Please model this.
Amino acid sequence: MITQAILQDIPALTTLINSAYRGETSKKGWTTEANILEGKRTTEEELTQTIQEPKNTILKYTENNQIIGSVLLVKKEQQLYLGMLTVSPELQNSGIGKKMLAEAENHAKALGLSSIIMTVISVREELIAWYKRHGYVATGEREAFPENEIHIAISDEPLEFVFLEKRL
Model:
Protein backbone atom coordinates (compact mmCIF):
# COMPACT_ATOMS: atom_id res chain seq x y z
CA MET A 1 0.00 0.00 0.00
CA ILE A 2 1.33 3.44 -0.95
CA THR A 3 0.36 6.34 1.31
CA GLN A 4 1.77 9.68 2.40
CA ALA A 5 4.40 9.51 5.15
CA ILE A 6 3.85 11.37 8.41
CA LEU A 7 6.19 12.58 11.16
CA GLN A 8 5.79 9.30 13.10
CA ASP A 9 7.31 7.47 10.09
CA ILE A 10 10.60 9.38 10.21
CA PRO A 11 12.65 6.90 12.31
CA ALA A 12 11.64 3.99 10.06
CA LEU A 13 12.20 6.05 6.88
CA THR A 14 15.65 7.16 8.05
CA THR A 15 16.68 3.57 8.73
CA LEU A 16 15.28 2.35 5.40
CA ILE A 17 16.86 5.10 3.28
CA ASN A 18 20.28 4.82 4.90
CA SER A 19 20.22 1.00 4.66
CA ALA A 20 19.42 1.14 0.94
CA TYR A 21 22.00 3.74 -0.08
CA ARG A 22 25.02 3.40 2.20
CA GLY A 23 26.96 0.85 4.21
CA GLU A 24 27.14 -2.93 4.07
CA THR A 25 23.37 -3.55 4.08
CA SER A 26 22.99 -1.48 0.90
CA LYS A 27 25.27 -3.90 -0.96
CA LYS A 28 22.48 -6.50 -0.83
CA GLY A 29 20.65 -4.38 -3.41
CA TRP A 30 21.73 -3.12 -6.82
CA THR A 31 21.14 0.59 -6.10
CA THR A 32 23.85 1.02 -3.46
CA GLU A 33 26.06 4.10 -3.32
CA ALA A 34 28.43 2.43 -0.83
CA ASN A 35 31.18 2.10 -3.46
CA ILE A 36 31.22 5.85 -4.20
CA LEU A 37 30.02 7.54 -0.99
CA GLU A 38 30.23 6.98 2.72
CA GLY A 39 28.40 8.60 5.58
CA LYS A 40 24.62 8.73 5.89
CA ARG A 41 22.20 9.37 3.05
CA THR A 42 19.86 11.31 5.31
CA THR A 43 19.12 12.14 8.94
CA GLU A 44 15.95 12.29 11.04
CA GLU A 45 16.41 16.08 11.24
CA GLU A 46 16.61 16.41 7.45
CA LEU A 47 13.53 14.22 6.93
CA THR A 48 11.61 16.15 9.60
CA GLN A 49 12.34 19.45 7.83
CA THR A 50 11.48 17.85 4.49
CA ILE A 51 8.13 16.45 5.61
CA GLN A 52 7.14 19.74 7.28
CA GLU A 53 7.65 21.75 4.06
CA PRO A 54 4.22 22.04 2.34
CA LYS A 55 5.59 21.66 -1.23
CA ASN A 56 7.14 18.29 -0.31
CA THR A 57 5.50 14.87 -0.12
CA ILE A 58 7.14 11.65 0.98
CA LEU A 59 5.26 8.57 -0.15
CA LYS A 60 5.81 5.29 1.67
CA TYR A 61 5.23 1.73 0.50
CA THR A 62 4.03 -0.40 3.38
CA GLU A 63 3.59 -4.16 3.70
CA ASN A 64 2.68 -5.90 6.97
CA ASN A 65 2.95 -2.56 8.82
CA GLN A 66 6.57 -2.18 7.70
CA ILE A 67 7.85 0.59 5.42
CA ILE A 68 9.79 -1.12 2.61
CA GLY A 69 9.84 1.70 0.05
CA SER A 70 9.69 5.48 -0.16
CA VAL A 71 10.12 8.41 -2.50
CA LEU A 72 10.48 12.16 -2.04
CA LEU A 73 8.34 14.37 -4.30
CA VAL A 74 8.84 18.15 -4.44
CA LYS A 75 6.54 20.52 -6.35
CA LYS A 76 8.70 22.94 -8.38
CA GLU A 77 6.66 25.31 -10.57
CA GLN A 78 5.41 23.11 -13.46
CA GLN A 79 7.54 20.10 -12.57
CA LEU A 80 7.68 17.50 -9.85
CA TYR A 81 11.15 16.71 -8.53
CA LEU A 82 11.60 13.04 -7.63
CA GLY A 83 14.34 12.08 -5.19
CA MET A 84 15.48 9.38 -2.82
CA LEU A 85 13.50 6.59 -4.46
CA THR A 86 14.18 3.80 -1.99
CA VAL A 87 13.38 0.10 -1.83
CA SER A 88 14.63 -2.17 0.93
CA PRO A 89 17.81 -3.83 -0.43
CA GLU A 90 16.45 -7.36 0.06
CA LEU A 91 13.32 -6.52 -1.96
CA GLN A 92 14.87 -4.69 -4.91
CA ASN A 93 13.93 -6.08 -8.34
CA SER A 94 10.46 -7.05 -7.10
CA GLY A 95 8.50 -4.24 -8.79
CA ILE A 96 8.17 -1.92 -5.78
CA GLY A 97 10.29 0.82 -7.41
CA LYS A 98 8.17 0.66 -10.54
CA LYS A 99 5.00 1.04 -8.42
CA MET A 100 6.52 4.01 -6.61
CA LEU A 101 7.38 5.67 -9.96
CA ALA A 102 3.80 5.14 -11.18
CA GLU A 103 2.42 6.68 -7.99
CA ALA A 104 4.78 9.65 -8.40
CA GLU A 105 3.38 10.16 -11.89
CA ASN A 106 -0.17 10.04 -10.50
CA HIS A 107 0.82 12.61 -7.88
CA ALA A 108 2.30 14.92 -10.55
CA LYS A 109 -0.82 14.63 -12.70
CA ALA A 110 -3.07 15.32 -9.69
CA LEU A 111 -1.10 18.54 -9.14
CA GLY A 112 -1.48 19.44 -12.83
CA LEU A 113 2.26 19.23 -13.48
CA SER A 114 3.69 18.53 -16.93
CA SER A 115 6.83 16.56 -16.08
CA ILE A 116 8.94 14.83 -13.46
CA ILE A 117 12.61 15.70 -13.07
CA MET A 118 15.36 14.08 -11.04
CA THR A 119 19.10 13.98 -10.58
CA VAL A 120 21.19 10.81 -10.55
CA ILE A 121 24.90 10.57 -9.81
CA SER A 122 26.64 10.28 -13.17
CA VAL A 123 28.64 7.11 -12.39
CA ARG A 124 25.46 5.19 -11.51
CA GLU A 125 25.01 4.01 -15.09
CA GLU A 126 22.76 1.02 -14.35
CA LEU A 127 20.39 3.23 -12.33
CA ILE A 128 20.27 5.83 -15.12
CA ALA A 129 19.53 2.99 -17.57
CA TRP A 130 16.68 1.78 -15.29
CA TYR A 131 15.08 5.23 -15.28
CA LYS A 132 15.47 5.48 -19.06
CA ARG A 133 13.64 2.16 -19.44
CA HIS A 134 10.81 3.81 -17.50
CA GLY A 135 10.52 6.78 -19.85
CA TYR A 136 13.04 9.25 -18.43
CA VAL A 137 15.48 11.00 -20.74
CA ALA A 138 18.73 12.85 -20.02
CA THR A 139 18.23 16.59 -20.38
CA GLY A 140 21.94 17.26 -20.98
CA GLU A 141 22.09 19.36 -17.82
CA ARG A 142 24.71 18.45 -15.21
CA GLU A 143 25.58 19.82 -11.80
CA ALA A 144 28.51 19.28 -9.43
CA PHE A 145 27.85 16.78 -6.65
CA PRO A 146 27.74 18.57 -3.29
CA GLU A 147 30.17 17.11 -0.78
CA ASN A 148 29.48 17.77 2.89
CA GLU A 149 29.57 16.00 6.25
CA ILE A 150 26.80 13.63 5.14
CA HIS A 151 27.88 12.93 1.54
CA ILE A 152 31.56 11.93 1.61
CA ALA A 153 32.92 10.88 -1.79
CA ILE A 154 35.25 7.86 -1.82
CA SER A 155 35.25 7.40 -5.60
CA ASP A 156 38.30 8.17 -7.74
CA GLU A 157 35.96 9.46 -10.44
CA PRO A 158 34.60 13.01 -10.12
CA LEU A 159 30.93 12.90 -9.17
CA GLU A 160 28.23 15.01 -10.72
CA PHE A 161 24.49 14.92 -11.07
CA VAL A 162 22.85 14.07 -14.40
CA PHE A 163 19.36 15.52 -14.85
CA LEU A 164 16.63 13.21 -16.15
CA GLU A 165 13.08 14.18 -17.11
CA LYS A 166 9.85 12.45 -18.04
CA ARG A 167 7.09 14.43 -19.70
CA LEU A 168 3.60 13.43 -18.67
